[in-house]
């Protein structure tokens, strides 16, 4: 049975660190070995700092997958969708690898990433190193509760992890879309609480749905609900980030379905229903976005050993 990376379905933490890397040419064999060792390294740290609830995710980008694991590709693994929209523009990243570390202690995250870096530094170049944090009781910097439609309990695994019955080779893996969304906080804060609630579709304090709003169908909540009803099921792991000049969120959307995020994103952009789009995007822009696949621990270890005896054919032939 495939063993998934524990960071996919882990509950929320207080601190997050995100390492975006590009692989150096000709380092594929070494990286397969090193990446397969990362979960063991992080598990040892997790046991040592058990109160920190340390977890991690190692993800391979859509454009680098065929270089690192050329024998087989997850079904319909594609780049971050480049939809043309009148409401929004996205700047894409070319990072080959994403390594996410989360815990309840910032110092443990630092220790973990230092050890990760020492393990892979001779094979990669660092593109970016990002930090996120838990804001109040799990809120966005808008002041509203984040991802109110997120699946809970055992449903998280069903939504996020590829089923063995669908794909035995990639069972326990997950399609991941990562993006950094910037909030125009100056203009957002000029709105009244009622105007903000109409845009979000739910109240800031108690999270209740806004009643009888003429604008509800264009709200953030309504667009996400429609996408979910159409089968765009996502497990989101979002964390705010902030500097004195920039504020926003680092957003990770996991799914067992390769097309779920595209359907979700298309609905928010207003591509599915003319005139209906997520009005929250009027106050946001994305300056960093990429699509990845998170392989199971079993797959990473088999790739490092060159052992594919459990697949339908010998993929190295």
In short:
With 317 residues, this protein is an alpha+beta fold. The chain has one domain. The chain has 9 helices and 8 strands.
Task: State the main characteristics.
Dyp_peroxidase, globular, metal-binding, 8 strands, disordered C terminus, peroxidase, peroxidase activity, 317 residues, 22% strand, oxidoreductase, alpha+beta
As a percent range, the share of helical residues equals 25-40%
Q: What order do the strands of the largest sheet run in, or round the barrel if closed?
A: 4-1-3-2-8-5-7-6
The low-pLDDT segments are: 309-317
Number of helical segments with 4 or more residues:
9
> How much strand?
15-25%
Mean pLDDT: 92
- Domain count: 1
Q: How would you sum up the major sheet?
A: 8 strands, antiparallel
The SSE order reads EHEHEHEHEHHHEEHEH
Global shape: globular
Structural class: alpha+beta
Give the distance, in angstroms, between the N- and C-terminal Cα atoms: 24 Å
What radius of gyration results from the CA coordinates? Answer: 20 Å
Instruction: Work out the number of β strands.
Output: 8
3D structure, described in words:
- This protein is α+β, with helices and mostly antiparallel strands and 317 residues long.
- The chain has one domain (15-305).
- The protein has helices at residues 28-48, 65-68, 106-120, 155-160, 185-188, 193-200, 220-229, 260-269, 297-305; strands at 15-23, 55-61, 97-103, 124-133, 174-183, 235-242, 247-255, 284-294.
- It has an eight-stranded antiparallel beta sheet.
- Helix 1 packs antiparallel against helix 3 (106-120).
- The longest helix has 21 residues, at 28-48.
- Mean pLDDT is 92; it is low at 309-317.
- Keywords: Iron, Metal-binding, Oxidoreductase, Peroxidase.
């Amino acid at each position: 049975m495939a063993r998934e990376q524990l960071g996919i379905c882990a509950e929320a933490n207080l601190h997050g660190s995100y390492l975006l890397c590009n692989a150096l040419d000709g380092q594929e064999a070494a990286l397969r070995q090193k990446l397969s060792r990362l979960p063991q390294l992080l598990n040892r740290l997790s046991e040592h700092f058990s109160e920190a609830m340390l977890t991690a995710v190692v993800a391979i980008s859509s454009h680098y997958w065929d270089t690192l694991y050329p024998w087989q590709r997850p079904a319909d693994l594609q780049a971050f969708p480049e939809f043309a929209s009148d409401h929004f523009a996205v700047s894409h990243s070319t990072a080959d690898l994403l390594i996410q570390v989360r815990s309840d202690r910032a110092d443990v995250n630092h220790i973990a990433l230092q050890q990760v870096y020492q393990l892979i530094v001779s094979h990669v170049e660092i593109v970016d190193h990002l930090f996120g944090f838990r804001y109040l009781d799990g809120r966005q910097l808008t002041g509203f509760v984040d991802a109110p439609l997120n699946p809970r309990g055992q449903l998280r695994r069903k939504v996020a992890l590829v089923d063995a019955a669908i794909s035995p080779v990639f069972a326990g893996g997950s399609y991941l879309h990562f993006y950094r969304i910037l909030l125009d906080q100056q203009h957002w804060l000029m709105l009244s609480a009622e105007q903000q609630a109409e845009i979000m579709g739910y109240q800031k304090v108690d999270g209740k749905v806004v009643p009888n709003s003429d604008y509800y169908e264009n709200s953030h909540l309504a667009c996400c609900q429609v996408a979910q009803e159409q089968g765009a099921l996502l497990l989101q792991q979002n964390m705010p980030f902030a500097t004195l000049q920039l504020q926003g969120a680092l957003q990770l959307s996991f799914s067992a379905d390769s097309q779920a995020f595209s359907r979700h994103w298309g609905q928010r952009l207003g591509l599915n229903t003319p005139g209906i789009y997520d009005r929250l995007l009027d106050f946001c822009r994305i300056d960093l976005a990429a699509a990845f696949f998170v392989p199971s621990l079993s797959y990473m270890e088999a790739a490092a050993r060159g052992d594919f005896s459990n697949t339908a054919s010998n993929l190295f032939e």
